[in-house]
Design the sequence.
């Protein structure tokens, strides 16, 4: 085996590794966004309209008597709509960019959850614990 | 010999048909020229994720101080939900028109691409216009950012999103000029794909904004 062949093999490895072979061919033929179809966009659009209309209707029409329940319901619908946008408009799936974009998204979601829930939790307890417990404490407040 | 074993291990790792075939035929070259176009898209996706973290911080601030009115006006009094609904539909429509532009891009038709991009730009302008009208209205009523922690957080969060859309519009115009001049060459297609991701990402952020800020802020 000559050294030239040997280096070629090594060159081949990183490219084949990333599972890009298929995507790359697609890029050259169709210009990249390999998963965009009219049907896909329209499905996403119709779902997005429905998922937007429901929360506005719930809040503007005061459909549910309890605003806590309404809040939870519209948050859930928003989460579903975000997934719909991710799948149909941003073309997220497990194989895009060899899975790296999904990994980045998962990491971001983890950070996001920590940041949001942590902030709310800490600041809520800070508020309650900083409240003066007795009249004496209240008087000595700065 | 390393040359024979390397593709085989690679096939086992990758596990797809193409690589298995490579190991059988012992093909030591790439059948097609390598254009690492996806690198840009992945990098842009990473940028979007970091942008997502910026918005997460702003959302966290709003979640913490969003009900600290300092005896000032509250969301229930300030928000005009029908205006927000109109605004939301503008952004949603601009998302689908950008999708149509991308579909025309796949068919390599320059004029329809430019037309759909123009429609997207107009809808984006309508969104920005409505938001600026809303802000002007709030400021006129005395609900300025300095009034309360709630209003500071509100203007920062919604303003940050509006700024993103405004810069997206600038980018859109620049790309329209580039597509008009250079046609749908590979570079311009890559740029369009990046802007497409950016635009749809802003729509995703807006879902969170209208749900968390406007709708939940309007709940009694």
Sequence:
């Amino acid at each position: 085996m000559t050294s030239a062949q040997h280096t070629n093999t090594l060159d081949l490895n990183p490219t084949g590794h990333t599972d890009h072979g298929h995507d790359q061919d697609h890029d050259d033929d169709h210009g990249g966004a390999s998963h965009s179809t009219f049907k896909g966009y329209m499905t996403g659009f119709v779902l997005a309209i429905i998922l937007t209309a429901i929360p506005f209707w719930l809040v503007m029409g005061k459909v549910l008597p309890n605003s806590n329940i309404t809040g939870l319901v519209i948050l859930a619908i928003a989460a579903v709509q975000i997934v719909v946008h991710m799948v149909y408009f941003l073309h997220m799936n497990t194989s895009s960019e060899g899975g790296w974009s999904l990994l980045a998204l998962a990491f971001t979601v983890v950070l996001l959850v920590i940041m949001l829930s942590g902030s709310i939790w800490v600041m809520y307890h800070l508020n309650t614990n900083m409240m003066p417990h007795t009249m004496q404490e209240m008087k000595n407040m700065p | 010999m390393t040359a024979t074993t390397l593709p085989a291990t690679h096939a086992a790792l990758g596990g797809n048909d193409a690589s298995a075939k490579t190991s059988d035929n012992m093909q030591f070259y790439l059948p097609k020229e390598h254009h690492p176009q996806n690198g840009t898209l992945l990098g842009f996706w990473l940028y979007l994720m970091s942008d997502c973290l910026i918005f997460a911080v702003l959302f966290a601030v709003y979640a913490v101080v969003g009900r600290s009115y300092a005896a000032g006006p509250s969301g229930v009094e300030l928000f005009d939900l029908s205006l927000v609904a109109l605004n939301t539909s503008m952004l949603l429509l601009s998302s689908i028109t950008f999708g149509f532009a991308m579909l025309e891009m796949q068919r390599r038709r320059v004029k329809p691409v430019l037309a759909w991009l123009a429609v997207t730009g107009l809808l984006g302008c309508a969104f920005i216009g409505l938001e600026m009208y809303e802000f002007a209205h709030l400021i006129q009523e005395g609900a300025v950012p300095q009034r309360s922690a709630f209003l500071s957080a509100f203007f920062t969060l919604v303003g940050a999103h509006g700024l993103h859309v405004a810069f997206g519009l600038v980018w859109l115009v620049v790309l329209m000029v580039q597509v008009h001049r250079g046609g749908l060459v590979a570079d311009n297609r890559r740029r369009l794909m990046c802007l497409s991701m950016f635009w749809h990402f802003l729509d995703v952020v807006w879902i969170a904004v209208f749900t968390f800020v406007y709708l939940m802020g309007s709940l009694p």
